[in-house]
């Protein structure tokens, strides 16, 4: 029988991306599948802390082995902001457009445009906790470019490329992204157990 593992997300893009990498040796289910409808607290001040909070919540309240991720955009010239606060950089209730507007505004006149996306995955399996991370370095562009992806994709250009994540499209992004790198580490770990 396949091992059941909960991915603590309801984001269908993420679920698709992650299940492609993890393959079909395990039964991957999401929050909807386990009937978890509440907002899981993300109150830690690090990516590691938030990923662990979410994974522990599922284990404690639903009893399943699970993993959870948290991602942030860390901009060197802004002391690694927005970081763990990336989703609500422009304030609660604001969307990706407002977040990008704020970031471009903060970056006006800054010569150092270096930034990185960092994903942390927390896994709880058979009573033990594990962390995996994935990083992609790049720069913040001067203006938005491209239509695909989500979040800060239109203003992030990965090193070695001349287009933003939003111009590169999901197929390329999903092979090089922070999240893909972290999920590959998770996949390697899981396959080393079998
Ligand atoms: P989450 O932890 O995956 O929910 O990510 C937190 C926030 O980081 C999101 O709301 C986005 O603003 C941003 N973010 C995460 N992953 C990406 C990405 O792959 N591209 C662009 N922005 C992202």
From TrEMBL:
EC class: hydrolase
Residue positions of the active site: 70
Pfam families associated with the record: Ham1p_like (PF01725)
Catalytic activity of the protein: XTP + H2O = XMP + diphosphate + H(+); dITP + H2O = dIMP + diphosphate + H(+); ITP + H2O = IMP + diphosphate + H(+)
UniProt entry tagged with the keyword Metal-binding: yes
InterPro entries in alphabetical order: dITP/XTP_pyrophosphatase, ITPase-like_fam, RdgB/HAM1
Keyword Metal-binding (UniProt): yes
Cofactor mode of binding and number, as noted: Binds 1 Mg(2+) ion per subunit.
Gene Ontology MF terms: dITP diphosphatase activity; ITP diphosphatase activity; metal ion binding; nucleotide binding; ribonucleoside triphosphate phosphatase activity; XTP diphosphatase activity
SUPFAM superfamilies per UniProt: ITPase-like (SSF52972)
Gene Ontology biological-process entries: nucleotide metabolic process; purine nucleoside triphosphate catabolic process
UniProtKB keywords: Hydrolase, Magnesium, Metal-binding, Nucleotide metabolism, Nucleotide-binding
Sequence positions that bind substrate: 9-14, 71, 150-153, 173, 178-179
Binding site for Mg(2+): 70
Cellular component terms (Gene Ontology): cytosol
Cofactor(s) in the UniProt record: Mg(2+)
EC code(s) of this entry: 3.6.1.66
Stated family: Belongs to the HAM1 NTPase family.
Function recorded in the entry: Pyrophosphatase that catalyzes the hydrolysis of nucleoside triphosphates to their monophosphate derivatives, with a high preference for the non-canonical purine nucleotides XTP (xanthosine triphosphate), dITP (deoxyinosine triphosphate) and ITP. Seems to function as a house-cleaning enzyme that removes non-canonical purine nucleotides from the nucleotide pool, thus preventing their incorporation into DNA/RNA and avoiding chromosomal lesions.
Subunit structure: Homodimer.
Entry-linked PANTHER family: INOSINE TRIPHOSPHATE PYROPHOSPHATASE, INOSINE TRIPHOSPHATE PYROPHOSPHATASE/HAM1 PROTEIN
Name assigned to this protein: dITP/XTP pyrophosphatase
Organism whose genome encodes this protein: Parabacteroides distasonis
């Amino acid at each position: 029988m396949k091992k059941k593992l909960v991915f603590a997300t309801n984001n269908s893009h993420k679920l698709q991306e992650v299940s492609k990498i993890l393959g079909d040796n395990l039964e991957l289910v999401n929050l909807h599948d386990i009937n978890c409808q509440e907002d899981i607290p993300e109150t830690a001040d690090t990516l590691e802390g938030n990923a662990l909070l979410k994974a522990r919540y599922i284990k404690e309240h639903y009893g399943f082995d699970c993993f959870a991720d948290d991602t942030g955009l860390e901009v060197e010239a802004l002391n690694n902001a927005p970081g763990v606060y990336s989703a609500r950089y422009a304030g609660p209730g604001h969307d990706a457009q407002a977040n990008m507007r704020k970031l471009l505004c903060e970056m006006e006149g800054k010569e150092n445009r270096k930034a990185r996306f960092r994903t942390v995955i927390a896994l709880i399996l058979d009573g033990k906790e594990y962390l995996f991370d994935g990083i992609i370095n790049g720069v913040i562009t001067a203006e938005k470019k491209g239509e695909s992806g989500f979040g800060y994709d239109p203003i992030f250009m990965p090193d070695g490329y001349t287009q933003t994540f939003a111009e590169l499209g999901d197929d390329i992004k999903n092979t090089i992204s922070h999240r893909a790198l972290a999920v590959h580490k998770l996949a390697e770990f899981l396959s080393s157990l079998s």
